[in-house]
Amino acid sequence: MDTNVLSVENLRIEFPQRRRTLVAVDDVSFDLRRGEVLGVVGESGAGKSLTGAAIIGLLRPPGRIASGKIWIDGKRVDNLGPAEMNKIRGRTVGAIFQDPMTSLNPLLTVGQQLVETIRTHLPLDRAQARARAVSLLAEVGIPAPEQRFLQYPHQFSGGMRQRVVIALALCADPKLIIADEPTTALDVSIQAQIIGLLKRLGKEHGTSVVLVTHDMGVIAETADRVAVMYTGRLAELGKVADVIRSPKHPYTAGLMSSIPAIGQSLDRLHQIDGSMPRLTAIPSGCAFHPRCPHAFERCQRERPDLLDLDGHKVACWLHSESTL
Ligand code: SF4
Asked: How many helices (H) and strands (E) does the chain have?
């Protein structure tokens, strides 16, 4: 039976403080099928990166999974210890972060790092691992891979370094890649290349990708489905084509109108007045109500749950049958 590569069920992430506990991610659920790219989008502080970190077991204390469950390739992982999670990371799940140097050791050649990662996870001898490393470099579009294999990270441009990180993430042919703002630090023209690469590799390898980004334009280019997050909760979840054609949540509609054309600089969310509230000051009812052009009385009073409208999910009273 074809199981989901990833299932997140009612995930809640908390940050305990001396006097109270802050809830950074609240009741977030989604699934990911084989070869699917799920975009997770929202402003800074929406909880999207924390969700990605929780999936790969890299949530930094005092942040903790307070409740909920995470399955990767049919195995429950939210309750695993660091050693067990380490084995899954790299073998079953690859990670790509905004700054390639987070994943690269400046003191080792790119080839050494690739070979080490391959041999940690796959039963290959040094020569076989070397051949695999060179072929991965070629696959991610690095010219002259035999020569580049011998070079150090500082000898690569930012875009080429991110390609190396993608090669590292692919070393053990993982089922899932978590990519957190993988193109944000890159020039716009390089961004498009990296997005194209992620998309192609996902399809060719059958790898599922969770793509965390603040940029709806990147989601529109890359993802099959999109989860829109606001103050730690899902605001909308659906197929990218549906969400782009008819966004159901006013926040998503604001994000859509901020999509820049490829080649333009990002003017983030310029259509939405105000900014995401801090975790210490989340408004009552629908957390988006102070910024929402469609807010009405109920929105301040009651928090909307995620409604399922034929697979397109939205948390907004405008779509409730009873809006009294
Ligand atoms: Fe706007 Fe109300 Fe919908 Fe929230 S529930 S998005 S405030 S209309």
From this structure: 11, 12
Best mutation site among 316, 322, 324 for ligand 1 pocket (most ligand atoms within 8 Å of CB): 316
- Which DSSP string do the residues of 40-86 spell out, in sequence order? EE-STTSSHHHHHHHHTT-PPTT-EEEEEEEEETTEE-TT--HHHHH
Cβ of 230 less than 6 Å from ligand 1: no
Tokens of 201: 């590799």
Enumerate residues 6+ apart whose C-beta is below 8 A from 207: 35, 94, 170, 173, 174, 175, 176, 177, 201
Q: Which atom of ligand 1 is nearest to the CA of 299?
A: 2
Reported as a single tens digit per residue, the pLDDT across 187-211 is: 888 888 888 888 888 888 889 999 9
Q: Which two tokens stand for residue 162?
A: 């991110």
pTM: 0.91
